[in-house]
Amino acid sequence: AKEIQQILDDKPIVSEKQLQLWQWIASYYMCTLGDVMRAALPSAFILESETVVSKNNLKNIDESILKDDEFLVFEALHHQSSLKIHDISNILDKKNVFPVIKRLIEKEAISVEEEVYEKYKPKLVRYVKLHAHFSSEKALQELLNDLSRAPKQREVIMTLFSVSATTKKPVKVKDLVNVSGASSSIIKALIGKNILEEYHIQTDRVQYSGDENEATKNLNEYQKTALSEIKTAFETYHTTLLHGVTSSGKTEVYVKLIEDTIKEDKQVLYLLPEIALTTQLVSRLQNYFGEQVAVFHSKYSVHERVEVWNNVLHKSPKAKIVLGARSSIFLPFNNLGLIIVDEEHEQSFKQFDPAPRYHARDTAIVLAHMHSAKTLLGSATPSLESYFNAKQNKYGLVEITKRYNDVLMPDIELVDIKDKLKKKCMKGHFSDRLIEDMTETLKVGHQIILFQNRRGFSPIIECKTCGHSPQCPNCDVSLTYHQYRNQLRCHYCGYNSAMMQDCVACGSQDLDNKGFGTEQIEEEVKLLFPDYKVARMDLDTTRGKYGYEKIITALEQRDIDILVGTQMLTKGLDFRNVKLVGIMNADNMLNFPDFRAHERSFQLMLQVSGRAGRTEERGKVLIQTYNPHHNILQQVSTNSYMDMFNEQMNDRYNFKYPPVFKQIKITLKHKDYSRVETASIWYAKSLRQLFKDYVLGPESPPIARIRNQFHKNILVKIPKQQSLPKTKEAIIKINNSFQSIKDFRSVKVILNVDNF
Ligand code: ADP
Ligand code: ZN
Ligand code: ZN
């Protein structure tokens, strides 16, 4: 034990309930409490609680020169040994306390080291707006005409409009630079010409500046029924699943529940997959609830996250509703009434690396329990886990089977690629059927989404002479060709090298592209439809805080006719003008080696399809496949969730997979193959002594080496009637004996519960 140097906080900044939840996470997901804390506490929080002024800073002065607020702080220092930002805020009952500290320093009432002051000083944030003399329609038109000779400047003005229209907030110079792609010198020029006006707001964040809040929408009959069914279900169940087809208006139902909850002065947590946290949804909620909505997002700065943390902790009216990605389950709620988990089937609610490897949906349910709050899970394609729980009567179940406004579900058609190839009706990866429908759609001015679930130009380069394909030196995978940079890249470790001219194995120049990704589809579309604007949305094009937003805005404003993209396209976006969705190849997702591959393919395809025809006119979806008779494809094309559920559940029973069995995966890693092999055999043998046939492996995963580490997996299946805590205890015991064996000490062990 070490000496206590200083007591940082008078009151705990972490509540008992939080600790209780974190302990649950550590024990359920088999990690340390420290792992959980590292994920939970924003690091700057520690900063916030640091002392800024202490008694030592006090000087002897004539108090009469102090203004009231200055005096309050000065006097407080005589009674308390030190003050933190938070304390000073409380004393003065305002947030921005820096001007007061500054004045106290200037009057030499206190002294604070330069760096301490600098550290806490809020940064000035630069904003721009259009100069007031362009407020009339006419003046604006003239300005835009004038600027036609300066297209870059014109572009900046246009971007300014679109950003402020979508976010309904003042526009930061930084954001304008990011979204428009213009250099800051162009913005400077516009300010110099008195077209743009620069101003500063000296708070750490801009407040929501919307007009009066919009009234929430009136629900239609289906929504009303769903709402009252949910309320009834909540009388019996802690958790209820809302299964509503895409565009059935689930969000509006959530909104009514949120309204009720905040009326009772309780907090609401609205969980979404990271990527679905778009400005679209944020502004939709802000229109209804204004400043009461706080957003918690990993792309936000630590300071922004600390602000949300404090607002939640102090039950501030500014955080009655927290809209956040998975890590928002760690916030210090103290009065939670409702948790909504939207798109609950989404894989990204699960954290894979580093520990805690928790599932935010499942943790949210536990969190709600602790607060006697309710959880609503929502999805158009629920996970088998949640639907199974509903069927088992553990959750309530409410369904909406109709789209809002009687919009029809899209017409889904399967296109047989094998047949098309035989009849020579394929151009590259496009069937004549798809080209035909695309032509029709574009002709009437509608937009198209093409879905391809691989990024890169062509995943694999293969030598036609010797069959060699270039491999990553650190991982057991082939490198992916990225045409944009003319590079070969590893998607696992980021290794990259220039594309070679000849085969490294035999010197042949006959190199072939195998497989295809978003980049290649984009290339082909551009050739097929040269007169239309094509864009691509995948991990490569959406890096950075604004990459994703830029593409969404462009699509909304019809600056894109055809959007090619990956998984990212599936997330709850609402594009009114998209009438055709093409799924380029259904087979590579169906054939993925994972017991959830069929369930996931069903979810993905229905979610992408849901982007088509969200207004009166019926949307169209074309799915290209080598295997049109595949059950999953039949179920997708007839929108038969129940058929999918029953068939998949049958497999899960037969092969003892979740949700029928629980499972824990143990991964061992080492740079030396024989060491990891011996270690994993020892581990599996010890497990088998206890769990017999329910242990599988050790096995090398399909990609056996990543970042120069060899992997071995062992799977433990746990029947529902077997105690999960006892099983975990036993595994931990084995793990401890394992760690105490000298030869195995350098082997890394990763425990993963439920989803992986
Ligand atoms: P889901 O979340 O189920 O996919 P949304 O909540 O996004 O569906 O609703 C689909 C569309 O229908 C949205 O554009 C939404 O604004 C509109 N909508 C839904 N319910 C109503 C309502 N009660 N009144 C007016 N518009 C509605
Ligand atoms: Zn070769
Ligand atoms: Zn690699």
From TrEMBL:
Residue intervals of the Helicase C-terminal domain = 487-653
Q: Which SMART domains does this entry report, sorted A to Z?
A: DEXDc (SM00487), HELICc (SM00490)
Q: Report the transmembrane regions from the record.
A: none
Cited SUPFAM superfamilies:
P-loop containing nucleoside triphosphate hydrolases
Recorded hits in InterPro entries, A to Z, give:
DEAD/DEAH_box_helicase_dom, Helicase_ATP-bd, Helicase_C-like, P-loop_NTPase, PriA, PriA_3primeBD, PriA_3primeBD_sf, PriA_C
PROSITE patterns documented for this protein: HELICASE_ATP_BIND_1, HELICASE_CTER
Q: Which superkingdom?
A: Bacteria
- Keywords carried by this UniProt record: ATP-binding, DNA replication, DNA-binding, Helicase, Hydrolase, Isomerase, Metal-binding, Nucleotide-binding, Primosome, Zinc
Specify the Helicase ATP-binding domain's residue ranges.
231-400
Query: Which cofactors, if any, are listed as required?
Result: Zn(2+)
**Enzyme Commission number, as recorded:** 5.6.2.4
**What's its top-level EC category?**
isomerase
Provide the residue positions that the database annotates as binding Zn(2+) 1. Answer: C463, C466, C503, C506
Which reactions appear under catalytic activity for this entry?
ATP + H2O = ADP + phosphate + H(+); Couples ATP hydrolysis with the unwinding of duplex DNA by translocating in the 3'-5' direction
Q: How is the cofactor bound?
A: Binds 2 zinc ions per subunit.
Binding-site list for Zn(2+) 2 = C472, C475, C490, C493
What task does this protein carry out? Initiates the restart of stalled replication forks, which reloads the replicative helicase on sites other than the origin of replication. Recognizes and binds to abandoned replication forks and remodels them to uncover a helicase loading site. Promotes assembly of the primosome at these replication forks.
What the record says about family reads:
Belongs to the helicase family. PriA subfamily.
Q: How does it assemble?
A: Component of the replication restart primosome.
Q: Which HAMAP family match?
A: PriA
Protein name per the record: Replication restart protein PriA
By which gene is this protein encoded? priA
